[in-house]
Design goal:
alpha+beta; six-stranded mixed β-sheet; five-stranded mixed β-sheet; 20% helix
Amino acid sequence: METTFESHKYAVAVRAIRLALVTVMLLVTVPAFPAAAEPFDADPLGIVPFADTAMRVYSQGADAWEVWLCTDPSYTPTLTLTNVVASLNAEITPYFQWLSEGAYQPTFVAGGTVVSTESISFGTPEEPFAPQCQTKVRAASNGGENGALIVVDAPFDAGYGTAGGVCPEPPFSGCTTEYPGNFREVVVAAATVSTVSPFDAPQWITVAHEIGHGLNMPHSYSGLTTDPNTNTISRYDNPMDVLSGASHTNDPIGTHAYNRYAAGWIDPAGVAVHAGGIADYQLAAIGSVGLKMVVIPSFEPGRFFVLDARRRTSFDSTLPTSGVEIHEVDTRQDIACTLPAEWPDTWPCFATLVRIKQHPAESGISSTAHVLGIDDSEVVESFTVTVTAATSSTFTIRVSGLDSGRFVDDDGLAAEPDIETIAALGITKGCNPPDNDRFCPATGVTRAEMAAFIVRALGEEGNIGPYQGLFSDVSEGAWYAGYVERLAELQVTTGTGPEVFAPDRIVSRAEMAAFLIRAFGIGDTVPVGLFSDVAAGAWYIEEVEELYTLGVTKGCATGPLRYCPTNQVTRAQMASFLARILAP
C-alpha cells in the first residue's frame, strides 16, 4: 500500500532568480520488523512516536545509498555517475557525520544509468517530476542497499524524498529495509550536485534536505507564511533548519534538537526535562560536549517544547544568528495532523507528520524571533526561559515557573529581585493598567518609559510642572509628557533632534548608558577600550565604561568582552541597571 503524506514547494534564491523546488514526501507503508506495543514505548523520554520503526530505522551507523543517473534526451548531459558518487561522498557524508556527531554515516555507491522516455519537467506541487526515472531504477536495481538516490540530469534545482517502507505498528508486518523492496528513494536534479546555470555552486542543501526526509524528519515552519507561487502555507520559513530554510542556498545548515534526538543522534542522557521550579541549564551546540536539549512539557499530552543551542561554527557558520532556539512539537492526531481513517484513532502523528514550529512564530522566511540571545526571555507555557550567559560553544538558560508575586510575568527571572526593588521604590507601576499585574520584562524600553523611570528614580516626580510644549512629538495629553519635559529640564536629554524627542523609539544600550550617567552625574571615566565592539571615538564610550566600572553592566558577552551598544534594552534589563545604580 502506498500512501501520499505530503507535497510541498521550496523556493531558493540564487542570482536573484527563484526556482521552485517541489518536494513530494511519500511515506510508503508496505507489508518492519517487530515494533513496540505502544507508540511511545521505544523512546525513553516518551516524546518520539514509533522511535524504533519509523525514526531510527536508517539513522544509526552506515546507510548505503545506491546512486543512479536518469537522463532525458531533451537535455544535454552534464553529469557522469563516477563524479556524482565521488562528490556525494565528499560533501554529504561529512555533513551528516557532523550533524549526527558521528552516529550516522551515509555512503554512496554507483548504481547505474537509466533513460526517461517521458519529458522531465516541473508539474504541480502535488506530483513528483520524474516518476518514470523511479520506476526504471526500481526495475534495474540489483538490490541490497538501503535506498536509491536518483539524480535527474536536468538543469534545475529540485528534489523530493521518501523514508520508504517503515512499519510503525501492526497490522503491518514483513517490511524490508533493503531497496528496491522498501521504495526508499531521494530524487534530485542536476543543479543540486553540480554547478548548473544560473546557480554558481551545487545546491547541496537540497540533497541534505531530501536525505533528511529519507530519515523521516519533518519540516519546521511557522504556519504564518504564504507561498506566493501556490497561495498556500509555506513549509520553508525557518532559516535555522535544513528541513526548512528557504533563505539558504548552496551548503547545508544543521537542524534543531528534536530531529537529532528522534534520529538517535542525541543520547537521552543529553536531554533534561524541566519538571518545574527554577533551574539553570547549559546547552551545548552541535559538535560540543554537554547537554543538547531541554524539554518543557505543556498542558496537553503529546505537545511540548524543545530548546537547544546553535552556534555559527562548521556547517552552521552561515546561520543568520546564534543563540537558544525554541520549537513547539505537536504529535496530537486531528490537531497537528490527520492520519488515514483505517489507522487506529489512538495513534499520534509520527515521522514527517509531526508538527514542529518556531516559538514564537512570525511570518517571513528570515525571522529568527524564536532564537534567544543573551538576556533575552520568552514565556513558554507556564515557564519563562531566559538566556543568562554564553561561551564560544554553549548558552546558559534559566527556566522558571510562573507563580505569584508583585508581577505574574517575572517570576524566576534573573532580574526578578531588581524588578521587585524598583517596584517597591515606585519607579515602575507595571505595564498593563489598570491591573498592572504584569511588568512585560522582555519588552523593549521606549524613550517615554525611560523618562518616567529616571524621573521617578531621581525622586523628581513631584516636581513635574505644567505642560510647556518643549517637543513637537510630545502632546499635552500624553501620559509621559510631564516626565519627558522634567527630564529635559534636568538636562538629562535634549531629544533626538530640534524639538523632537521620539517617545516611542526603543532605547539602545548606548543610549541607556548616556541617560543613566547624565541623570545620576556619576564618575569621570577616561576610556581605555574595555569593549571590543565600542570604537575609541564612539560618543557613548565614557558612559559605557563608567557603568562597567561601577558594576552596573557586565557587558553582553565575553571572549572578547563586548557591550552590544546597538542592542535594544528590555524592561527587565532596565530594572537591573536602575537597581544597581541605586544600590547603597
